[in-house]
Specification:
With about 450 residues, this protein is α/β, with parallel strands linked by helices. It folds into 2 domains: about 260 residues, FAD/NAD(P)-binding domain, CATH 3.50.50; about 180 residues, FAD/NAD(P)-binding domain, CATH 3.50.50. It is globular, with a radius of gyration of 25 Å. Bound molecules: flavin-adenine dinucleotide, NADPH dihydro-nicotinamide-adenine-dinucleotide phosphate (NDP) and 3-(1H-indol-3-yl)-2-oxopropanoic acid. 3-(1H-indol-3-yl)-2-oxopropanoic acid binds next to loops. It holds the Pfam family FMO-like. Its EC number is 1.-.-.-.
């Protein structure tokens, strides 16, 4: 039922003093709401949507600023991408110093590339340390800025067995932390629906164990496709990997130093195009030509491509060796699936048992955020905006600059500072005012 109290005309703001006659009406809201099982909750501080690394990082930085907040998370745990939608053998592929969140470093005994379990343990202790207690199982279904009362109205749905509860949160600031990987991309390919074998997306893949002895078509050759093909090999499956266009494969390390770190260091001194040239020369010296194995390189360099299109270069952790040895077969684009076969664009036909779609992810922001000035149609902040962490009217985005966890940490620090400044200014003014009336609606 889409029914709600039209708060708009009331113009209720965080620090407004509510006249007694209005308070009578407002106090009736929970009663009316309970009839329709919708609660209305005033949040003193920002609402953060998503309890992944980005949402937690903002929470931690806000804690330091003394700003209260509410985190809404649709899953039943923090970092659901890492806990529920990644494979067992996953490790961070950038060195740990680029992946830790603000204000709390990784434990000293962590290896250079922490495992998924170590990363999750760190995030759990991070949430505990900063006393971040998200509202779990609450999916944000819509968020809209109410011009009349100059507040955000965030509607969530939570289901507990057969009980469905709707809540509306009202707040001054909205922090979008739902991530670049919120939805799996499952392309429509002719015949795939009728394919007889198992079809899973990378986000459902846990281990190659269940594919042992099987011929598996891995669709996509990003970091997921490469690492899953390697995992399949390690479990005695027979993977073929679809490379429909091009890919930059870089060694994870160059002369024992992280390639990523080397790139970051070089970028401080020389232009991006030159860093790209150097990376490609060094990669060629270490890996040799990748083109002869069917891995054509894009015409633009790896970092420029990441910046322009968000396409992450592959940081090789062993798949290339398996490609060289023929254990991973590289195949071109798919024409169609038919029965237990796949027809490729070069006319070749392959018999396969299973398909793993390593075809990437997308943002889910367009499905729930009713806003078009800051966010583009693809669910990322518009690239024309200078500070891609700050929109209008108290809207913020964290973790959408395609710079991985270090980008999220950067955004989180800026966002908390920005909100903290307004918060402190408000507090100062409040101290000069008469005390507030009791809040009209449930308050966090
Ligand atoms: C397999 C994989 C490996 C990666 N490895 C690295 C790496 O090594 N280094 C690196 O820097 N980056 C890496 N990344 C990039 C990745 O983006 C970050 O690691 C990180 O998870 C991003 O954090 P986030 O909080 O922005 O998004 P997420 O981790 O996706 O968290 C978003 C949260 O929002 C919740 N949510 C979504 N929609 C709603 C809604 N409507 N209502 C309520 N809650 C919602 C989700 O359930 C989720 O818990 C990797 C990505 C993938 C897919
Ligand atoms: N160890 C780690 O830390 C890991 C990190 N990651 C990160 O997660 C993010 C997502 O990576 P990933 O899941 O690989 O997604 P990507 O978006 O990087 O790659 C998707 C791949 O799927 C291909 N593809 C998409 N649609 C089709 C289609 N219809 N037919 C054939 N091929 C198709 C794309 O080809 P095309 O280029 O032609 O569009 C591309 O090769 C990245 O940022 C990555 O770095 C992922 C795994 C491990
Ligand atoms: O792992 C990812 O998806 C990242 O986004 C991390 C990242 C940010 N910039 C990069 C450049 C090269 C390789 C990985 C990354």
């Amino acid at each position: 039922m889409d029914w709600y109290i039209p708060l708009g005309f009331l113009s209720v703001r965080k620090d407004d003093i509510i006249p007694p006659e209005l308070e009578i009406f407002l106090n009736a809201i929970p009663v009316i709401d309970s009839l329709f099982s919708r609660r209305c909750v005033w949040v003193n501080g920002p609402v953060i949507v998503g309890a992944g690394p980005s949402g937690l990082a903002v929470g931690a930085c806000l804690r330091e600023q003394g700003v209260p907040f509410v985190v809404l998370e649709k899953a039943d745990c923090i970092a659901s991408l890492w806990q529920k939608r990644t494979y067992d053998r996953l490790k961070l592929h950038l060195p740990k110093k680029f992946c830790q969140l603000p204000k709390l470093a990784f434990p000293e005994d962590f290896p250079e590339y922490p495992s998924k379990k170590q990363f999750i343990d760190y995030l759990e202790s991070y949430a505990k340390h900063f006393e971040i207690n998200p509202q779990f199982n609450e999916c944000v279904e819509s968020a809209k800025y109410d011009e009349a009362c100059r507040l955000w109205r965030v509607k969530t749905v939570s289901t507990n067995g057969s009980t469905r509860t709707e809540v509306e949160y009202i707040c001054q600031w909205l922090v979008v932390a739902t991530g670049e990987n919120a939805e799996c991309v499952k392309p429509e390919i002719e015949g795939l629906e009728e394919f007889e074998g198992e079809v899973v997306h990378a986000c459902e893949y846990k281990s190659g164990k269940q594919f042992s002895g099987k011929r598996v078509l891995v669709v996509g050759c990003g970091n997921s496709g490469m690492e899953l093909a390697l995992d399949l090999c390690n479990h005695n499956a027979k993977p073929s990997m679809v490379v429909r266009s091009s890919v930059h494969v870089l060694p994870r390390e160059i002369f024992g130093k992280s390639t990523f770190e080397l790139a970051v260091t070089m970028m401080k001194w020389i232009p991006l195009w030159l860093v790209d040239k150097i990376l490609l020369i060094l990669s060629w010296l270490i890996l040799g030509s990748t083109e002869k194995y069917g891995l054509k390189r894009p015409s633009i360099g790896p970092l420029e491509l990441k910046n322009r299109e968000g396409k992450t270069p592959v940081l090789d952790i062993g798949a290339l060796q398996k490609i060289r040895s023929g254990e991973i077969k590289v195949v071109p684009g798919i024409k169609r699936f038919s029965g237990g076969m796949v027809d490729l664009v070069n006319g070749e036909k392959l018999e396969i048992d299973s398909v793993v779609l390593a075809t990437g992810y997308r943002s889910n922001v367009p499905y729930w955020l009713q806003e078009t000035e800051f966010f583009a149609k693809n669910g990322f902040p518009k690239t024309t905006i200078t500070n891609r962490w700050k929109g209008n009217a108290g809207l913020y985005a964290v973790g959408f600059t395609r710079k991985g966890l270090s980008g999220a940490s950067f955004d989180a620090t800026r966002i908390a500072q920005d909100i903290g400044n307004v918060w402190k200014e408000d507090l100062k003014q409040k101290k000069q005012k008469v005390p507030c009336h009791r809040r009209c609606i449930s308050q966090f």
